[in-house]
Amino acid sequence: MRTFVSDPELDSIVGAFEHVDRHLFRALLGDPEAHGDLAEIGVWYGQSAILIGDYVRDDETFTVIDLFGAPAADPSNQVENQDSYSGLTRSAFEANYLRFHDALPNVIQGFSQDIAKHARSGSHRFVHIDASHLFEHVEADLAASKQLLAKAGIIVFDDIRHEHTPGVAAAAWQAVGRGELIPFAISPHKLYTATGGVDRYSMLIREWQRGQESWQIEEQSINGHPVLRIFTDPPEGPKYSRAKRFVPEVAWPLFSWLRQRRDRVTAR
To answer: What is the Cα–Cα distance from 157 to 68, expressed in whole angstroms?
Structure first.
């Protein structure tokens, strides 16, 4: 029987893949009527890639690309990588991925926009853009992603609403304004767009949301298209600590133990 990675298992991986987006990815990737390749641009330690890997079918290819610590193409991107992704290695990503899957995806170490050189054009049903936050790089990643997409493929942008990542929002919304992408959903962290088929994608999200007490949907209109805003109260259980991004992965167990000890002392 096929098994899928659980949220507690994903929580054991360094990353900031929020619970609401995990649910949305599963709803969209699990569509039985969708067929095509999958891709992720920027993988960090593999949280979202591991979940995407659950939905790769026998006739599909999953391609991921990341610098994995290699030098960036320009000084600004190099500074960004040192500040946000220091310590990331290809071996760390691959070890995490193989904890949950029998084989690796097509792993490319290189500049994110070069994914179009390594993955099939016009064949992808889902592309997740989660690499550089700099405007010029996001535009290049988007251009490469559009080459990969099938007729009704999905492009998901990460970090769409953070104040320190305005380049992502600028590139994504400009593409929406030009009519190149159709937005159909937005979460607190990601923008979900497509080149077609958005009525079905919205239906899949609404079907998932039915019966959910903690997850809510509000419909808005952007550039003439209905867009579902998905929001929720914080999930039960331990919250993700963004301080972990500054702690080497090997020290996470100690970090978690110290935090739990602090919480117990505070609760007395």
So the answer is: 20
